[in-house]
Amino acid sequence: MSTSQQSAPSQQKLISLYFESLKNLRDFSINFESKRLTAILGPNGCGKSTILHALACCYQPIDESKSINYKFSYFFPPTTDFNWQGSNLIMTHSYRVGRNEHESVETEYEKQADRWKPIYKRRPSRHVSFIGIKTCVPKIETESKQSLIRYSTQPLSDQVSLKVREKASFVMNRDYTNYNIHKATGREYIGVEYEDKGYSSLSMGAGEQRIFFILTEVFQAPKYSLILIDEIDLLLHGEARSKLITVLREQAENKDLQIIFTTHDHSIIEFSSQINIRHILQTPEKTLCFQDTKPDAICRLTGKQDRVLEIFVEDDLAKAIVKKISGELGLSKYVSIKEYGSVENCFTVLAAMLIKKDTNIDNMLFVIDGDKYKTSEEQKKRIDNVLTGDPPEFKEMRSKALDYIRKFIIDNGFNPEKFLHSLIVALPTQNSEEYNEIINVAKTIHATDNSHKYIDLIIENMDYERSVGLKVITDLIALSDRWQNFGVEIKDWLSYKKPDIKES
């Protein structure tokens, strides 16, 4: 064994990358530990591709005959508008040379003058393969010859090619019987045979062509390589994308590879237990990276806000109250509030949700007004009446049912409407003339033929549309020193959920 082979680094591992400033990435850290595959998600322009471009340039090849020596000028060419001066990033990585292990080494890259530092020959060594968007361009679109193309065909029978054919068959759900190379004068094309028909890459779909390219790069890569794939889902249907991820995971485990790819497809989170998920967000001050998939991350990709928390209430007054509590915690856009009507319906709806197997009931809350079924014993008795049966799973449901019920805290002998009316009349004079008018109207209401009408009468006397009136009155009641205790059970539940729901 030669001296150069003995001293070649191995067991390379990328730990993290910090960008002080590069293109639109500012004061930004991203971690690649934990799993061998990392998916980088985010909307257009957030810097996903910039991360891959920078990583490609952080290493020099171990063997230039087997991999490209990527340089910063390939991806960040100086122009009359911008020369990249002031760019700075730090890679934290580990590797081994002979018996010497180098843990958490920091290598800094910067451009302060005309050249990037360190010089390219002083970069750490590793086999890197960058698979960019140009691999999505169909071969036919880059072919200039329009006359008859004559080529000779040779089957690819080496171990890598056989494995590529096998895995491409799995990903594309096609039983490829041969994987070939077609040679013409000055040109080469890959080709396959499928259902007794042979065709070259000139006739391949762009997605099919890219699958063969990606698989070839991965299967021929030496151990401890870094594979970078830009827009992995581009041109692939969902099933093919999922199967490709499965193949990449297996090969990464077999050869100690790290594979990092970008994507816009939020469905990739179905693999979150198997691969790292990193969400990128640009703010005016800096670039953020979130490691957990939360509703805001999905909204940035799809444009649709996912209301992951469901709260069921008796009526529109309770709905306005819960909306106010949610807003005070900054969770309003994550909460869907539904009315179930009479309090008895609460237990029926809860039982139905417990029985449904495809429902995430842990993100559901059932709120009762607090004037009926105040005690746990009363609530349990009602649950037992609607959730009957002896199967073990029903017994478990009955034992857990009360965990999903909360109530408003009101004085004995009151219902919510009368209790809230009492809070309004007890308020001191406010700085708002509108609020003072509401307080004065409330003070004129001493008794009603139905205690549920106390709030209704205020709305009628103020000539509010109902939805507007409920919001204004709820905002006023929130100024009472008893407001926090009134909704404390709902607030505590939302506060418990908040870290799992909202990005911080």
User: Can you count the helices?
Assistant: 18
Distance between the termini: 53 Å
Name the poorly predicted regions.
1-5
Average pLDDT works out at 90
Estimated structural class: alpha/beta
Tell me the major beta sheet. 6 strands, mixed
Strand content: 15-25%
Read across the widest sheet, the strand sequence of neighbours is: 7-12-13-3-14-15
Shape: elongated
What fraction, in percent, of the residue positions are helical?
25-40%
Estimated radius of gyration: 32 Å
Number of separate strands: 19
Tell me about this structure:
This protein has helices at 3-6, 48-58, 72-75, 139-142, 159-172, 206-220, 238-255, 295-302, 316-328, 343-355, 376-386, 392-400, 416-425, 433-443, 454-461, 466-477, 483-486, 488-501; strands at 9-22, 25-31, 37-41, 87-97, 100-111, 116-117, 128-131, 152-155, 176-184, 187-194, 197-200, 226-229, 258-263, 276-282, 287-290, 309-313, 335-339, 364-368, 405-407. The protein has 504 residues and is of the alpha/beta class. A six-stranded mixed beta sheet has the order 7-12-13-3-14-15, with helices on both faces. Strands 2-1-4-5-6 form a five-stranded antiparallel beta sheet, covered by helices on one side. Helix 5 packs antiparallel against helix 7, helix 9 (316-328) crosses helix 16 and helix 15 packs across helix 16. It is elongated, with a radius of gyration of 32 Å. It starts with a helix and ends with a helix. Residues 1-5 have low confidence and may be disordered.
